[in-house]
Amino acid sequence: MKFTNGYWLDRDGFSVLRAVEVRDVVADPEAGTLTVYAATKRVRGRGDTLNAPLLTVTYSAPAPGVVRVRIAHFDGGVERRPRFTVAAVPGFVPQVRVDDETGELVAGDLVLRVRRGPGWLVELRSGGRLLTSSTTRSIGAATGPDGTHYVHEQLTLAPGELVYGLGERFGPVVKNGQTVDIWNLDGGTSSEQAYKNVPFYLTSRGYGVLVDHPEQVSFEIASEMVERTQFSVPGHVLEYLVIDGPTPKDVLRRYTALTGRPARVPAWSFGLWLSTSFTTEYDERTVTSFIDGMAERDLPLSVFHFDCFWMREFHWTDFVWDPATFPDPAGMLARLKARGLRICVWINPYIAQRSRLFEEGRAKGYLLRTTDGGVWQSDLWQAGMGLVDFTNPAACDWYAGELKVLLGQGVDCFKTDFGERIPTEGVAWFDGSDPQRMHNYYTYLYNRTVFDVLREERGEGEAVLFARSATVGGQQFPVHWGGDNDSSLASMAETLRGGLGLGLSGFGYWSHDIGGFEGTPDPVVFKRWLPFGLLSSHSRLHGSGSVRVPWAFDDEAVAITRRYTHLKHSLMPYLGRVAEEAHTDGVPMLRHMLLEFADDRAALTADTQYLLGDGLLVAPVFDADGEVDVYVPEGTWTSLLDGSTLTGPRWVHQTHATDSLPVLVRPGTVLPIGAVTSRPDYDWADGVTLTAFELADGDRREVVVPSSSGGAATTFVVRRDGDALEATGPSDVAWQLRAGDRTVAAAGGVARLTL
Q: How would you classify the pairing of strands 413-416 and 465-467?
């Protein structure tokens, strides 16, 4: 929120105390802390210390390259829960020192320096380079006209510095000039509201900032003070962490090391998912007809999803199949699984009054209570619904037990919908958590409960859910879904922007509703959306009031679905490695150009295209007539679809047929192409073709192909020496080497060809 009226004045009704003078700096080398006592008015004599508020700013470091800042006005309040889990490096203690001029904290390459005396100046440097600073009027403890207290910080932005992240947001990916409130709401797309709010941003300068508050955090990103990013919280204390890079990729690595890395997801989850859609009419016969139709048209299907109405109306959630439409659920699931399908069902954390679980949940204290001891209820979404209180371990076990029954029936995974309609007034959580903090944090507990059940029942690496809402740490429970979009090309573009922002917030995997959710898309919208959806980490056909089977549109839609589903399966040796990087390093599969081309100014603002991993550039076509502009970075890039080349750096305007789009392979890439296109979960190394694109003389590339079943990876090495290209790899499986139109099979673990 904004506290000022221009630069000099405060907003009417606000009073703001600001750090204007450092009175003392105390170093504790054993604890690794630097504590600064800042006066809020100039102290010229002893009388000036009377009736003079003092701000206490404490600096520490949980890990190398990370500095924690704690700003306190009044520090005697009760500790508020919950808190984000931020993992410190065991045994790490930063260096601290104080002299007559400065106080300094050193955490690896990241150095924080406080200037003593009049004025306020705190600098953060890495490798001697200034990252950002807190300067005059940056720190403030404010009181609003209604008596509410706030604390804010402002960190400087360098000329040309761009800010990214803050979760899944649908406006411009670059956040400069925006006001952003971190508050999960059921707002769909096309609005300032979002399901996935994350109080973390990173900048093109190679650092990130995590505001360590689960409650509402208000950001003013060069929108109040145009040279600064401001963040504020209600109360008397503000805590945040500055995270060094030096590259944006490194920032994400450090951030996810602190807050949790995305889990490894099963190979089958990368295939095509088909849903019943939301309000469409369906039963087992309908479902079977969809699956038969996919098979008849050679449209490989990996997962079938049952949306809300697998349960009876007014009963959500009771985890009971509607007997009118699914009289034999266990038998039906067995029949579907016999066809090689995985099964997903929709769930949410709301328990309708008519649910068989409502009275049990009320009696045992498993539902969120009001302050007078009753159950909190609402008619919004489901009649008389209550809310599972996941701060109660017994309630978690109760909810998990119902999921285990479904898993025993043959269900493989869940779509965890909702988690945003969390009340803040007049409620009391089981563990005493602060209602304001629980609003955003609730989704973390909800998705953790479900993910833990899947991991326990299906095993490590086999757990997967589709989560709608999220906050800090939620990236550990993938996959996150960016649906509820309009069925339009404009909404397709905003969906991509949301996915790019989410990836820049530490989330490794992402999906969306192909063709849009609301309404029925025009066939051209659906067909333009298909390649985008199938060239995302996860791919789902889902809608609201109409089904998304491709033949419901036309034969060309069927052909496009077939082409890109088969293409995605063939890319699994590559995508499997990219997914592993998301799991081990926290670098997302779907990447904003910033992550690979941080030194290319033109790439920093490109939000109509993305990188799928480090080697494939994808530019969805958001125009009915096929017009598209794509930014091509330096070098010669090759179309994966037709082999044509483009040389950058430059913007290129193209026109693409309905079944085409720019899919460009980065120069210097060796792309492993799989031998199987009918499913994603096959032996990725067996029969793989190593396809070299624009390797320079002397280049050496190591190509790692993970195991689709969690076993040992297979490693190949490709070298270019003049016109000779040589690859080495295992001798116990078949594989090939390709460059241009030339292909040679390996013999004895070696393949050679002449360019």
A: parallel
Residues 255 and 272 in one domain: no
Q: Are residues 276 and 350 in the same domain?
A: yes
Could you confirm whether 292 is annotated as catalytic? no
| Dihedral of the alpha carbons of 328, 330, 336, 338, in degrees to the nearest 10 | -130
Instruction: Provide the number of structural domains found in the chain.
Output: 4
- Whole-number Å distance between alpha carbons of 622 and 610: 14
Instruction: Tell me, yes or no, whether 41 and 131 share the same domain.
Output: yes
- The pLDDT confidence band at residue 728, using thresholds 50, 70 and 90, is very high
43-82 exposure pattern, b = at least 16 Cβ within 10 A, e = fewer: eeeeeeeeeeeebebbbbbbbebbbbbbbbbeeeeeebeb
The one catalytic residue in 307, 412, 420, 681 is 420
Tokens 């013999």 locate to 747
- By residue count, the chain amounts to 755
Alpha-carbon torsion (633, 639, 640, 644), positive or negative: negative
Residues 66-79 have pLDDT tens digits of 999 999 999 998 88
Residues 521 and 636 both lie in one domain = no
Check if 420 is active-site.
Answer: yes
Question: Token pair for residue 392?
Answer: 């109660």
pTM: 0.97
Sheet holding 750-754, edge to edge: 700-705, 714-721, 724-728, 750-754
The model's pLDDT over 229-280, given as tens digits with 9 standing for 90+, comes to: 999 999 999 999 999 999 999 999 999 999 999 999 999 999 999 999 999 9
Residue 439 and residue 225: Cα distance in Å, rounded? 29
Residue 488 DSSP code: S
Domain check: are 454 and 388 in the same one? yes
- Do 74 and 51 lie in one domain? The reply is yes
Res 188: pLDDT: 72
Find tokens 């290319």 and name the residue.
600
Q: Which domain holds residue 314?
A: 267-574
Torsion of CA 208, 209, 210, 212, to 10 degrees: 160
Among 240, 259, 278, where does a domain finish? Answer: 259
Nearest Cα neighbor of 3 from 133, 123, 179, 208 is 179
Q: Are 675 and 687 in contact (CB under 8 A)?
A: yes
Domain membership flag for residue 629: yes
The strands making up 163-167's β-sheet, listed across from edge to edge, are 117-118, 21-28, 33-39, 54-63, 66-72, 237-244, 207-211, 197-203, 163-167
Over residues 180-192, the mean pLDDT reads: 88
> Does residue 582 belong to any structural domain of this protein?
no
Q: Using CA atoms, how far apart are residues 45 and 659, in angstroms rounded to an integer?
A: 77
Q: How confident is the model at residue 21, as a pLDDT?
A: 93
Angle CA(226)–CA(230)–CA(236) in degrees, nearest 5? 150
> Residues 6 or more apart from 373 whose CB is under 8 A from it?
none
User: Which amino acid, one-letter code, is at 343?
Assistant: I
**519: in domain:** yes
Of 259, 284, 316, the last residue of a domain is 259
Pair 529, 397 in one domain: yes
Calculate mean pLDDT across residues 107-115.
Answer: 98
End-to-end CA distance of the chain: 60
Q: How many CA atoms lie within 13 A of 327 on its CB side?
A: 2
Q: Is 562 left (phi over 0), alpha (psi -120 to 50) or beta?
A: alpha
For this structure, is 99 an active site residue? Answer: no
Catalytic residue among 484, 494, 518, 681: 484
Residue 277 shares a structural domain with residue 234: no
Inter-CA distances, 434 with 79, 248, 516, 702, Å: 9, 33, 37, 50
**How many Å apart are CA 736 and CA 730, to the nearest integer?**
11
The single residue of 104, 224, 250, 417 carrying the catalytic annotation is 417
Position 671 in a domain = no
